[in-house]
Amino acid sequence: MTDLLKVCNFSFSYDESEPPILHDITFSIEKGEKLLLLGPSGSGKSSLALCINGLFPRSIDGISTGDISLLGKNIDEYLPGEVNQYVGIVFQDPETQFCMLTVEDEIAFGLENINFPRVEMDERVEWAARLMGIENYLSANIATLSGGIKQKLALACVLAMKPKLIILDEPTALLDPVSTKDFANTIQLLQKELQFSLIVIEHKLDHWISFTDRCLVLSDSGEIMFDGHPRSCFQSHLKQLIELGISLPQTFLFKEQFLTSNIVPFTFEELIEILDEVPDIIEKLNTPKETIIEAKNISFSRKKNRIFQDININIPKGILTAIIGPNGAGKTTLSYLLSGLEKPTSGEVLLKNRNLTTFSKLELSKNIGYVFQNPEHQFITESVYSEVAFSLKMQGLDEKRVNEISEEVLASFRLKHVEQHHPFSLSQGQKRRLSVATMLVDEQSFIILDEPTYGQDANTTRELMNMIEKRLQSGVSALMITHDMELVDKYADYVFVLVDGEVIFQGTPYQLFSGHKENLEKARLQLPLKYEVLKQWKLRGERFANSIH
Predict the structure, then answer these.
(1) Alpha-helix runs per DSSP H in 370-484
(2) Mind listing the domains of the chain with CATH numbers?
(3) Spatial contact of 349 and 368, defined as CB atoms under 8 Å apart
(4) Nearest to 410, CA basis, from 438, 390, 448, 444
(5) 323 vs 332: CA distance, rounded Å
(6) Which of 225-234, 383-392, 451-460 is the least confident region?
(7) Angle at 253 between CA 252 and CA 257, to 5 degrees
(8) What angle do CA 35, 91, 465 make, to 5 degrees?
């Protein structure tokens, strides 16, 4: 095999007065090789991806030293946009890379930019759409598509260019559990068929780790900490990985928590093989009878499309409630109705028994906090420090107290070193932490968090959830939208399952995960690992019992 990509003594920073984000990076990728790129939030993974495809430092005022060469030619020697013929990137949020209105035009866009022969273009567009199973959406308006279809479209656009290297930058961060699994399986099949090289940047490792050839780990200072086989990485450097906040595969977390075996189980099958017994699952019972938000017979339509019809839900007071369901189910829209950001077409939403329509905007903002899925939607100041301090000043705290709380929050969320940076200059993971931090220092009695932990490493996820739990203990009520079932199992007290604008289940996580599988299948959900292990353990016991009769 020959090298497709070589990175040699490469360093990169956004400002020469600051330490480099990437420091003295050296590695290579062979043709057809599959690399898993790991590191804590803010370690420079996305910056490295953008340097590899030639966008950085060419398109920003960044500073780099060292060399990156592709197919034996230095990246700097390629014309602007030329590298995109060889390196394709699929980002966390696919909408950031769309330029056209329809699916067909979007797939064709890159081909048109390289003057691909018109007579062959339709065939190439259909080929890419067919590979991703979206051939029936070619004439569809992109704005009407679900998150899962948009992610498939983003990959189809990349595949249409037939690149030598594909970089996936947390491509499943906003996908439901089944779509996440389907996306990873699709990549595996396509890579086997088309033999492109692959770099996967992910925090959720379960569907990728047994498929990749190599593991490259960046430290929090942007240096290479490990380069080698994934199994060797997790077996030999476990303590360092945990300290860095690298998310472990769920199978390995389970093994670390409950088993003494020295085997590193990367797949569910490997985990089941080393089991001697399984732990009991204890139900959390923490559902108060009091309600903070009540939706009565609410219906909602947008542009004549009915999204909800006569929905009735009660959000319990003082606990964490989760709304889960497949992409496109209406979870975010429902949260807008519950927060007063949208008004129902009919029905009413009550906060503490008072209709939201009777609140002024100022009253609503004092009672309800909202952390948006896209953190940039809520930034209003010029620095990270000012963003955290803003609401504290609005509460009338004196300058000394504002400074004390701000410094404490910035340290907790690992943002102290970027406190004077503009919020828009942060990494995606840092932006998410800042958006949650700004809401958690407020004094609202009800907070809504739309995917609060996406793009976060294990340490930051734990810190974020601990901060939310502290607010709950002080009497705050919280509603969380998430696709992470392990998060729901560990932290949520109550859960609603939404499918096609209809609530098909409400109850405790235990009731959902130990109940009928039909609800999980309808909502494209997967069991948390310990429930799946218990299920398979019981099946194995039943098979054994049947075999001796």
Answers:
(1) 384-394, 399-412, 428-440, 458-473
(2) 3-246 (3.40.50.300), 291-377+442-534 (3.40.50.300)
(3) no
(4) 438
(5) 9
(6) 451-460
(7) 115
(8) 90
195 — alpha (psi -120 to 50), left (phi > 0) or beta?
left
d(CA 191, CA 32): 8
Sign of the Cα pseudo-torsion (142, 143, 148, 154, in order): positive
Contact by Cβ (8 Å): 479, 446: yes
Which of these, 246, 302, 253, 255, lies nearest to 278 by C-alpha position? 255
Backbone dihedral angles phi then psi of residue 448, each to the nearest 5 degrees:
-115, 130
Name the β-bridge partners of 301. 306
Handedness of CA 54, 58, 61, 63 (dihedral sign): positive
Dihedral (CA of 185, 190, 193, 196) sign? negative
- For 124, other C-beta atoms within 10 Å of its C-beta total 18
Sorting pLDDT into bands at 50, 70 and 90, what band is 272? Answer: confident
Which tens digit of pLDDT belongs to each residue from 284-334?
776 667 999 999 999 999 888 889 999 999 999 999 999 999 988 999 999
Q: What is the model's pTM?
A: 0.88
Quote the radius of gyration of the chain (alpha carbons, Å).
24
Candidates 434, 468, 422, 432; CA nearest to 448 is 468
Distance CA 10, CA 13 (A): 11
Q: Is 230 helix (H, G, I), strand (E, B) or coil?
A: helix
Average pLDDT for 15-38: 93
- Look at the alpha carbons of 515, 521, 525, 527 in this order and tell me if their dihedral is positive or negative: positive
∠ CA 174-178-181 to the nearest 5 degrees? 85
Q: Which residues of 241-271 are buried (b: 16+ CB within 10 A; e: fewer)?
A: beebbbbbbbbbbbbeeebeeeebbbebeeb
The identity of residue 267, as a single letter, is T
Query: What are 439's two structure tokens?
Result: 């809401």
How many helices (H) and strands (E) in the chain?
19, 20
CA–CA dist 213, 36 (Å, integer): 8
Asked if 334 and 308 count as a contact pair (C-beta separation under 8 A), the reply is yes
Q: Is 174 in a helix, a strand, or coil?
A: coil
